[in-house]
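We modelled the chain as a single entity of 250 amino acids. Its sequence is:
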Amino acid sequence: MSIRALVIDNETEIKESVIDLVKVFCPAVSEIGSATDVASGIEQIKKFKPDMVFLDVELGDGTGMDLLSHFEEIAFDVIFITAHNKYAVDAFKLSAIDFLLKPINPEELVRAVQRVIEKKEQNIIFSQLKTLNENYKSTISAEKKIVLKDLDSIFFVKTKEIIRCQADGAYTTFHLLNKEKIIISKTIKEYDELLTPCGFLRTHQSHLVNSLYIKRFDKNDGGVLVLEDNCSVPVSQRKKDYILDYLKNM
């Protein structure tokens, strides 16, 4: 596979670093170009027609999202470049979009490029970018969305629509308000890290619940949370004090 890549970053050192690393570690990339801001980035995308764009979140004359808004269709994959900003990182993770933190780690770059090469869902990038933009702008956790992919479908789900998540080995089942279930081949640990900032609680090694839907705490059987859908979720002994403290402060 031969890939054309474009690096858009207003920091010369970062831009040249990405170009050098791609040339050394990513042999599938046959051509690589560059731009420094929104205006030159738009021009280069139209002229160079890249398969993949490394795009800085903050450019001198605007943002990466400003640049992308100039295109009605996104015919290339995007790997964002960003400074370490937890809020931005959470938005990228929820949207399932690749990103690299400055300074660029060569191993992370290679993994991100490889994911693009292996990606089959080329037609979902526009929807993912829309979700990223919504997550990035939203300061309300319940309005954020998460991208969930199974073998057949890609779901864009508001976090407030998720009642709970339940682990089954390497799989996680999402239980939604409309009683729909979505089974994803990722561990609950990954979703614990993603959803905790959105008001979710890990009550047990196999259970993650949305605090919006906690109805009561029952002391029976060592402690269970009863949710709005009348499901009883166990609370592990190790988590009990943390859960009780959380509930007192809700």
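As a brief sanity check on the tokenised model: The mean pLDDT is 86. The chain has two domains: 3-137, 141-248.
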